[in-house]
Amino acid sequence: MDRYLSARQLARLVQVPAETRPYYKALAESVRSLILDGRLAVRVRLPAERHLAEELGVSRTTVTTAYDRLREQGYLESRQGAGSWTALPDPAALGVEGPWVVSDDEGRLPLHCAAPPATPYLGDAIAAAAEAYHRYALGMGYDPIGVAPLREAVARRYRERGVATRPEQIMITAGAQHAIHLVMSLLVGPQDPVLVESPTFSHAIDVARLRGARLVPVGIQEDGWHLDLLECALRQSAARLAYVIPDFHNPTGHLMGDEDRAALVAAARRNDAILLADETWAELALDDVGPRRPLASFDTDGRVISIGSASKLWWGGLRVGWIRTTAALVRRLALFRASVDISGAIVEQLAVTHLFDRLEETRADRCRSLRASRAALAAALHAELPSWTFTPPPGGGSLWIRLDAPVATPLADAAAARGVRIAPGPWFGVDGTLEHYVRIPFTQPPDVLTDAVHRIAAGTGSYGYRPAEPLTPTL
Predict the structure, then answer these.
(1) CA 80, CA 75: separation in Å to the nearest integer?
(2) For residues 305 and 174, is the Cβ–Cβ distance under 8 A?
(3) Cα dist. 430→13, 181, 200, 201, 280 in Å?
(4) To 5 degrees, how large is the angle CA 310–CA 315–CA 316?
(5) Alpha-carbon dihedral of residues 240, 243, 246, 251, nearest 10 degrees?
(6) Which residues pair with 78 in a beta bridge?
(7) pLDDT digit string, tens, across residues 361-372
(8) How many beta carbons lie within 10 A of that of residue 162, not counting itself?
(9) What residues contact residue 307 under an 8 Å CB cut-off, 6+ apart?
(10) Angular region, 216: left φ>0, alpha ψ -120 to 50, beta rest
(11) CB-based contacts of 285: which residues, under 8 Å, 6+ apart?
(12) Is a pLDDT exceeding 50 seen at residue 311?
């Protein structure tokens, strides 16, 4: 016999105050949270829209809109004449309520995304690009590997960091995510094993899933990477591609030491694997961590593909990233790219070329603001949520926070109801794990972060959860 829920039972569970606006959205989010935290099982038939509307004292249109929203998100399945059942979305699906597809008019503080505001030097860079673009205006405007001055600037920066690099080894992309997509699309096929860290950058998981790859997660421990576990996973899975973030890891903030970097490249060589190294945060050391050699500096046979981006140093709106690899692979990627977007925008590439000329001062400015925001976020968390634990990272842009209960998803829902969008741990995992964690970036100004923590703390009771008080030792 099918399981079902009456209108009175569901109304008692959702508990959405009548004055909440917009009510349909709050109703949908409440049902979604019930499903995600197991309080409402999957494959349970929900009451008819008319009956639930009567029980809640709202219009039928309101409930219909909420049900439609749940269907779009993948949390409700319906069949004409048979009703609607609770469901879980396909983890590979990118629904309308995916983590990164959020309308700007919701008015929530966007702490789900570690995106700093534009550098104050951006105006000068765009002005310089406007003066230089006419040199390219007589041509087609299409260059799938990127304009020569920017490729030379990126190659020069790699040389400054200790990796011999020619411009022919650089391909300019529309951001780091585009770079990951190009590399995985070219090198990964259906059912191919792809090793990823756990937790890791959620968009890399999305790309691997879209390719139909078999994900092989390797846990990052509290003290960072354990190379024996990583090599064991490479050997047992026969993965030929491993996506890693050695520099201020997103989301944990860990920084891999040179000895481990050398060991990682050696392990990849022994197991005939390619390392896709995401260096998006590599330039943003906030503390004195000493020099760190890029992963590619330990490479002797072209098995390290490095990815970088202008988004964290300067601004995500520029949509400029790059790939460093062998010249032969750059040519293959360029041919493949032609079927996707042909090339990037010339003016943005010229603006980033100018910003590379001012790298030191722009980086110093960015690091100053991130340090101030990191301190403000840490202070607010210690004051308002003292039982949550974290280690401030020596660089990067986020805190990886351990909660005192596995409630990350409902906590994120409660924060959203208070006007703050945060990223729960499962976004960064493969199998719905990491409910003990949330990621909160410190890329917003200090006053915004302080206000956000206050709102989060005020909403922790919305799902019957309150952080435990820290224990006071008895003398």
Answers:
(1) 17
(2) no
(3) 29, 18, 9, 11, 21
(4) 80
(5) -150
(6) 84
(7) 999 999 999 999
(8) 13
(9) 176, 179, 180, 183, 276, 277, 278, 279, 280, 321, 322, 323, 324
(10) beta
(11) 248, 367, 394, 395
(12) yes
Q: Which of these, 86, 70, 72, 6, lies nearest to 38 by C-alpha position?
A: 86
Q: Quick one: tokens of 152?
A: 């030379």
Alpha carbon dihedral 278, 159, 310, 426, in 10-degree steps, equals: 10
How many Cα atoms within 13 Å fall on the side-chain side of residue 312? Answer: 27
pLDDT tens string 113-140: 999 999 999 999 999 999 988 888 888 8
Contact 395, 285 (CB under 8 A): yes
**Higher pLDDT residue, 36 or 118?**
118
**Angle at CA of residue 414, ends 411 and 415, nearest 5°:** 85
**What is the Cα–Cα distance from 28 to 67, expressed in whole angstroms?**
7
CA distance 69 to 28: 7
Distance (Å, whole) CA 194 – CA 101: 25
In our burial notation (b when 16+ CB lie closer than 10 A, e otherwise), range 28-39 reads: bbbbbbbbbbee
Q: Per this entry, what is the length of the chain? A: 475
Among 3-7, 166-170, 263-267, 378-382, which is the least confidently predicted range?
Answer: 3-7
Distance CA 412, CA 250 (A): 19
Alpha-carbon distance of 196 to 245, in angstroms, equals: 9
Question: What would the two tokens of residue 98 be?
Answer: 């995916």
Nearest residue to 264 (alpha-carbon basis) of 274, 254, 249: 274
Residues 321, 252: Cα–Cα separation, whole Å: 22
What is the strand order of the sheet 109-111 is part of?
109-111, 420-424, 437-441, 398-402
Cβ atoms within 10 Å, residue 177: 22
**How far from 62 is each of 24, 207, 397, CA to CA, in Å?**
5, 35, 39
Comparing CA positions, the residue from 68, 72, 19 lying closest to residue 46 is 68
- Torsion-angle region of residue 3: left (phi > 0), alpha (psi -120 to 50) or beta? beta
Antiparallel, parallel or unpaired: β 193-198 and 214-219: parallel
